[in-house]
Amino acid sequence: MVDTAQAPGKAQAGVRTMTMVKAIQDALDVALSEDPRVLLFGEDVGMGGVFRVSDGLRDKHGEARVFDTPLAEAGIVGYGIGLALAGMRPVAEIQFAGFLYPALDQILSHLGRYRHRTRGRFTVPMVIRAPYGGGVHTPEQHADSPEAVLAHVPGVKVVIPSDPYRAKGLLLAAIRDPDPVFFLESIKLYRSVKAEVPDGDYTLELGKARVVREGNAATLIAYGGMVEVCTKAAEVAAREGVELEIVDLETLVPFDADTVLASVEKTGRAVVVYEARKIGGFGAEIAARLAEDAIWSLQAPVLRVAGWDAPYPPFSAIEHHYRPDARRVLEAVRQVLAA
Amino acid sequence: MEPLRYIAEDGTAADGLPFTADELVRGYRAVARARLFDDRAMTLQRQGKLGVYPPYRGQEAAQVGAVLALGASDWLVPSYRDTGAAITHGLPLSQAILYWRADPAGWQFPEGLRVLPFYIPIATQLLHAVGVASAGRYREEDWVALTFIGDGGSSEGDFHEALNFAAVYDAPVVLMVENNGWAISVPTEKQMKNPRIAERAAGYGIPGVVVDGNDLAAVWHASREAVARARAGEGPTLIEAVTYRMGPHTSSDDPSRYRLEEQGKPWEARDPVLRLRLALAAMGAWDDAREDALQSELKEEFQAAVREADAAPEPLPQQIVEQVFAEMTGDARRAWEVLKHG
After folding, report:
1. Residue ranges with strand state E in chain A
2. What is the CATH number of the domain that holds B72?
């Protein structure tokens, strides 16, 4: 699959500036319009969902295709698997990524195994969307970042966009992908960032990381909500004459090692930034890859800036100390530059 | 709720039996075929020619009777104990042998055959069956999905979620519980307070039916009605087939560790295959000559299937990393090369 996007701003179709929520809604609208096999469902999805992502889609596409489910996450995923097995293109919403856990049996035992265990006879082209991450004072259990759990499941892809333009193109690619895809959406980014988004249909290739800012002093490797944090850090560093490179993974699985390695081979220094718990997080996989394949290019230890080794805190007044911010990223940058 | 029964243990058929003798002969051939496969599979297992195998002896009528209610366009979503159901719905015997030989050649079921793979994680497949059933409506197909679970499986959360989703969406699905008395070593009375599983249907607002699971006519009839309801858009049915697991949980299990042999004795007299044969004989529709002819036909079929399975190509190490995704990742390609070249 190749990118089908026009560069934003010079497309013949219209371009609108919009939030992540609107861009995702736009992608779902396009997918529902283009392919009668696409179905959208989950808890409260009919009325628009708790983040209003599916606002208006039931009215436009009908209650048969945009519908509420019973309040049961294993049911949502298992039902979606069945729909996909029989030729549909289900897009399920799990209300918060921290609510995925009742569905883990369906995810671990079935979602990624069908193609493999039936040697390609039965496949599950299904997308599971879920808002993830902290930073907006959500209640307990609403701010989890379980991407490492999902990335550890063979046979499922994991996509985490970092801006509205990328979100729309990646979601359309995910819906058309022949295999199951988790699409995690940073709650922090839902309404805080805007970008120019082309109208209509375009896709962005899954499985490709991209350099979102060029620099030579060190590489920051991030995805989703942490790309914004890294960008802020890089802007501060630039004022001190330190040019940081940022690699946005976008897709955790399949992992684009080439882009990451190329950047780190150039800069010789790497800081991996993610908001999940540090130990066993996806950043550990990235650091391990660098140790395996880029050790001779490294001039400093690979550092990780991540959530502390604790549950995401339900304590509103202090939760901002959990999620990495530009200050913590810059501390790590200073360490790798000093090495 | 008393189980529906048409044919008594001694083969006496009740008045109003809703099948012709010809139909029952067709049913008998299918249960006898399922019995022979199961017997022979256990023998192959003991000879080291099959992997761990979950036998279904005693449950042939419960499986076959339900599948006989399906057409070729309908879906079967079986649990691991339902090989008898799968071969009745068209899974080639050679494929079933290769499946339980844990050979990848057995795991790719034929194109067009609507049998999903056997499921180990208990009750998870019920939700898939509900989804498959609903998909027919979007695709303007009138297919029905039939899925099986055991009495132990009715304790799982997915059992509840599947019944609820099926009911809420009026999905054209038939959920068949093979209540065989045992979840490995745990008897039904320790599994649930109310052992009449079909009564739970009322809690979901759908019909629940209990049948004598060792009476092919009862299972077939209840399934036929449930399939007709589903196809007519009237939603799901929960059927409980009361039966007994005559054998071990799997070929690795030793039931003498947890149950007395005499507990199974009454069930020997209720044998579903023998019972149907007696009924057909009483109708004058079966005799020893026909039985002998059938048995030799079935043996030949099985032997041919074994020969076919034996001729399957050796599995290759690199198959491990094939079919994870439609397109291999870079990591998978590197692993494929390593596995291929040792």
Report:
1. 15-19, 38-42, 66-68, 89-93, 127-132, 157-159, 181-186, 194-198, 210-213, 218-222, 244-248, 251-253, 270-277, 303-307
2. 3.40.50.970
